[in-house]
Amino acid sequence: MLYFGFDPSLTCTGMCLVEDDGKYIKSSRISTTNNRWLPNRIYYIFNEMEKTISELKSNYPDIKVSLELPIKKLYNDDLLIMVKTCLWLNLVKYRIPFVCFSPTHIQNYMKESGPQFNYSSKSTGTCKLSKLFLEREGVSNLYTGIKKVKKLQKDESDAFMVARLGVRFWKFHDMWHSGSPDTATSFTEKELEMFGSKTVKKSNKKVRVLRGIIHNKGLEYFTFDD
Fold it and tell me: Parallel, antiparallel, or unpaired for β 197-201 and 141-143?
């Protein structure tokens, strides 16, 4: 089983393919410039994404996808339109299962990865963390040939992190629906909270259960097994 991650943007969308254990396979980008007319940019991105997703479905029929979904208050409406029209429609068209992560999901995942990733404050960006993560994994310089070296760009390294978190979610999804809760021990507490549920006790002694991604099929993740 292979997994694919998208870090969408109007300027540069990062894409990355990883193995079942989260190891890097390959990555690429879809880039546009600000001086192009917005409808033309969206049209170009849509076509490029369709090519990518079509090839994924053809080469890896069981592929599962994850993407970072921008938050409206942090990004402009144009970016949200691009994500929904260019990415979602193509994934639905080819019936590829996909899950949507917020930037907070990605940051929490990297924060929990440990102090070796130098996560010290909210000002530490996803890009720096993912690049450092790649260096720790030993894949910041990737041998594409005998002596040819490839360096990942910012958006590709971000997509790599999105893909890795996607691996964790889809494994949790399979565990959840297989009815084997004993395997939940292979997930961290933070992953169980993000994917499953979290119990919160308020000051007035009331208990509230925050439902994670697995409870939001059709909103945060989509499968086409019906």
Answer: unpaired
Helix (H) or strand (E) holding 16: strand 12-18
Residue 24 lies in a domain: yes
**Residue 211 domain flag:** no
CATH number at residue 159: 3.30.420.10
Query: CA-to-CA distance for 133 and 82, rounded, in angstroms?
Result: 28
Q: What is the mean pLDDT of each run of 10 residues along the chain (226 residues)?
A: 90 90 88 84 90 95 90 60 79 93 85 56 58 69 49 80 93 85 73 81 66 87 81
List all residues 6 or more positions away from 33 whose beta carbon is below 8 Å from its beta carbon: 11
CB within 8 A of 195, min separation 6: which ones?
168, 169, 172, 173, 176, 187, 212, 213, 214
Identify whether the C-beta of residue 192 lies closer than 8 Å to the C-beta of residue 175. Answer: no
Task: Extract the tokens encoding 74.
Answer: 């942090």
Within 8 A by CB and 6+ apart from 190, the residues are 108, 109, 112
3-class DSSP assignment, residue 56:
helix
pTM of the model: 0.84
